[in-house]
Amino acid sequence: MTKDYFKNKAASYEKESRRVSNVDNIANLIVERLDLEKGMHLLDFGAGTGLLLERVAPYVEKITAVDISKAMIEQLEQKRDGLHCDLAILEVNLESSSIDQTFDGIISSMTMHHVQHIDAMFEKFYSMLDEGGVIGISDLDKEDGSFHGEDTGVFHFGFERDVIAESAIKAGFRDLKVEDASVISKPYGDFPVFLLTGRK
């Protein structure tokens, strides 16, 4: 049984304005950089309460939300009727399980630092995409560990941009680009956030 690190945070997750603003910035850049089309089916990896996918929804036909937190998924379920695309929700740990379908694109916001084996995850992403499929993966730049004030299952204190790009390249992705997406300002510091995009 996997611990639900967000069990007590899910209901109030979107009440933090910094978090919402950060995802706004990420979503805007994803929409700007990826060639999204109304017929596309995306996977949102670590979808949580759906902050990212609800902003991307108007540009695609369907999004499959994947998360391991039952509490976060329950919050997302409440948004279903208000979304501008079809929604499928899967409570799955993609690190240890697979989904028997492929997608036109994979998006993700602030989830990869919760993933232990980054190389393996990019390999899985690659296998889950149709030819020409795109990725838009956003996360923290390398930080000193102060970003998370509590244990939420963190394996990485952000990432060096060239290191995470190399993981994607090794998996087979091309046309890689890593760029500034946002900055999360906390009382004790500013934490830059990047967006990595690429194509199968």
Give a topology summary.
Elements: H1 17-33, E1 41-45, H2 51-56, E2 62-67, H3 70-77, E3 86-91, E4 103-109, H4 118-128, E5 129-140, H5 161-171, E6 174-186, E7 189-199
Parallel strand pairs: 1-2, 1-4, 2-3, 4-5
Antiparallel strand pairs: 5-7, 6-7
Helix pairs in contact: 4-5
CATH architecture: 3-Layer(aba) Sandwich
Structural class, please?
Answer: alpha/beta
CA-based gyration radius: 15 Å
* Share in helix: 25-40%
- The H-and-E topology, N to C, reads as HEHEHEEHEHEE
Here the CATH topology equals Rossmann fold
Dominant shape: globular
The number of distinct structural domains comes to 1
Number of DSSP helical runs: 5
Strand count, sense and barrel status of the largest sheet are: 7 strands, mixed
DSSP, total strands:
7
Please give the CATH class.
Answer: Alpha Beta
Distance between the termini: 34 Å
What is the beta-strand fraction?
25-35%
Structural features:
single chain, 200 residues, alpha/beta, Rossmann fold, seven-stranded mixed beta sheet, 5 helices, 30% strand, globular
Question: Could you characterize what this model shows?
Answer:
This protein has 200 residues and is α/β, with parallel strands linked by helices. The chain has one domain (10-199): 3-Layer(aba) Sandwich (Rossmann fold), CATH 3.40.50. It is 26% helix and 30% strand. The chain has five helices and seven strands. The protein has helices spanning 17-33, 51-56, 70-77, 118-128, 161-171, and strands at residues 41-45, 62-67, 86-91, 103-109, 129-140, 174-186, 189-199. It has a seven-stranded mixed β-sheet, with helices on both faces. Helix 3 (70-77) links the parallel strand 2 and strand 3. The chain is globular, with a radius of gyration of 15 Å. The model has no long low-confidence stretch (mean pLDDT 89).
